[in-house]
Amino acid sequence: MWRRGKKRGDREAAGSRGAGSDTGPASKRMKDSTDDFDGIVVGELGNNRRVSVRSWQGKVVVDIREFYVKDGKTLPGKKGISLPMDQWKILREHVDEIDKLVKENS
């Protein structure tokens, strides 16, 4: 089998993973709901959907997302959209047009 980079023994000798660490490669840490979602919930849309405002990667976003319950915790799902402020402003500017089209097609 092919291996890329340095061999395991070379990394341990260099001390890149700390002294006395024999645990193999670092595993991915499961994110807590507080790590991934620390927003202010603006509203519940029903069917486990929420609108919230939160900070993500240092930027404020409007997040419309489905949530699911796992082990008694409510966690954000993959289905959803996070709108940065420039896209949120564009959407807000077109709300009247969207409302008019919804009424026409209802």
Automatic annotation (TrEMBL):
It is found in: Nucleus. Gene3D superfamilies: Transcriptional Coactivator Pc4, Chain A. Pfam families: PC4. One of its GO terms (cellular component) is nucleus. Residues 44-94 form the Transcriptional coactivator p15 (PC4) C-terminal domain. GO terms for molecular function: DNA binding; transcription coactivator activity. It comes from the Eukaryota. InterPro entries: PC4_C, ssDNA-bd_transcriptional_reg, Sub1/Tcp4-like. The keyword DNA-binding applies. Its main location: nucleus. One of its GO terms (biological process) is positive regulation of transcription initiation by RNA polymerase II. Residues 1-37 are annotated as: Disordered. Keywords: DNA-binding, Nucleus, Transcription, Transcription regulation. Belongs to the transcriptional coactivator PC4 family. PANTHER family: RNA POLYMERASE II TRANSCRIPTIONAL COACTIVATOR. This is Transcriptional coactivator p15 (PC4) C-terminal domain-containing protein.
